[in-house]
Each structure stands twice: as C-alpha cells, then as structure tokens.
Structures
1.
Amino acid sequence: MSRAVAPVVLIAHGTVDERGRDELRALAHACGAGYGATVRCGVIEYPADGLQPVFAALAASADEARATGADEVRLVPLLLFPAGHARDDVRVIIRGAAQLHPDGCTCPGGAFRFRRMLGTTPLNA
C-alpha cells in the first residue's frame, strides 16, 4: 500500500498587489503539481493583517492529512531573511498549530514539520 503524500503549507509574506497574489497562487499550484499533493498558501501580513490565513491553511491541511492518511503536514516558510516574520511569526505559528491541534495535526503521525526558510542564495540575493 502506498503512503499518502503530506500536504504542504507555504508561509509567505503576502502583498497588497493582486498580481503578486496571483503569482503566489500560481507558485503553489505549480509546486502541488510537481509534488503530487495539495500545496496551500498561508500569508502572514497581506492582504489582511494577522496570521489567520496561515492558521486556516494549517487547519485545512491537517484535515486533509487525516482524511488521506498522511502522517504529517509540511510547513515551508517562503521568507528570504531571518528577520521579524521569520523569527517572531513563525514561532507564533508553531505555538498556534500546537494549540489548534494539541495531538499534532490529528493525522496518523500527528506532526507539523517545518522545513528550512527559503532564505537567499547567490541566485536570488
């Protein structure tokens, strides 16, 4: 029996520009198509203040993981610099995920797994 592929939540800053939001949605769609699982976006600041969009994406992904038998939800911060959002908001997201889902993500393995922040490389610096 094949193992269910874990859903992914991309954590991004967001933008007030609709074209930028379209690009983020296209990136999530392309990642999902290449990865073979649902990839959602949770934006930290724009178009709305607060972390509610991230928590909504986490909840939907946890529900999906439970329904499909995936053993985790993967969280990928699409942030370039280890500044305020990466340092502070990601910590709040981790604590919030634990509060919203004290047994992990209520999926079989019960885990939210954070991946490395995107960061900078010589190609995008």
2.
Amino acid sequence: MKKFASKKCVEPRRMALARMLAHYGPWDTFGTGTFEYDASAAAAEKAFSRFMGLRPMKQIGMFWTIESHHHRDASHVHFVSQSSQHIRWSLAHKWWHERFGRFRTEKIDQERSLAPSFYLGKYMFKNPATSSWGFNKAFVNRFGKRPEAEVNELFSWKRPQGTDAFKKTSQYGFREQTKMPVVQPSQSRHVPKAVGENSQLSLQW
C-alpha cells in the first residue's frame, strides 16, 4: 500500500468508504474499545478478535479498524455493527472492562448515518502501510468477499496532477466535497435480517 502525498488525499477516501459501507447497511451501533495498559496494534486486533468470537457477536455484522499511534503502544479499536439492536451491550461493556479497559457504544443516528464510517476512515487512511481493519465472519457470510475488495480498492486511488478530481476506481468514486450527504436507511440496497429480541443466543456470553 502506498502512502498519501497529503492530507487532502485522505478525505475523499473517507467519504467513499462511508458511502460504500452505507451501501451494505444500515448500521445501527458505533463502538470503541480501549485498553488500560499499553497495547500494540497487533494486541488490540487480537483482543477484538476474541470479542468478535463471542456467541452474540457472531450473529451480527461488524466492520472495525484499529487506531494506533506512531510513538507509543496506545492502540484502541473502533467499530460499527448492524442487526445488533437486540444485543445487550451492557454485558459487552462488562466483558471488555474485566479484560482490557473501557468500552463504549452509541446508537447511530440514521439522519447522520455516514458520520461513524467517515470517522473510521480517518484511522484507516492515516497510514495505509500499517492500516488494520476488517469485516467479521457474519458480515462476510452475508455479503461475500466483495466489500473487502472494494475497501482495498480505495487504497489504490491516485490523485491526478493539477486537479482535485480522483480517478473513479470504484462505483463509489466522487469529486472532493466538503458537505457530508445524508443516506437514509431506505436507500441501502441490502437490509440484513435481525435476530429477535427474545433470542436466547443474545444472552449467552
């Protein structure tokens, strides 16, 4: 993966990522997991892999990325999830806190549904050479490998000399813009099937 020439190169990729994820939405929860000890990006990814392996987490679609720091091991993980309205996040908070540190989730406002994914892109494209991100198994089982390929495609975007336009290497290509468009849930092509509120699986950690 190539590094970007300037910060201006990052913004269009972040927006394209948000629009791409909206295509596979809707996403209903944004979360962050931190560590009370110094954690490398690899350690943070390993911890989140354990979290995604919990039985309730296997039922929902997730996209995650690691926020890492250049000068110290102080990584933490951000994620968005779908079909997770039935999840008892208080149990997730407890599970993470007992093992790693702080854990926070918040419901995504569908009037600003692109904002969380745009935020995730900030850390994905900040340093592409060391970027760590992925979809969980439930998401891949539902949509296949195409979303992962589309994200990888964003890393190959090149800035033509003397213009702010980017080569449209994916269907989510667009010109640089400052205002974030709103994508309503009804605009999403794929609507995942949610697990029922009374599912016993959601109670088993």
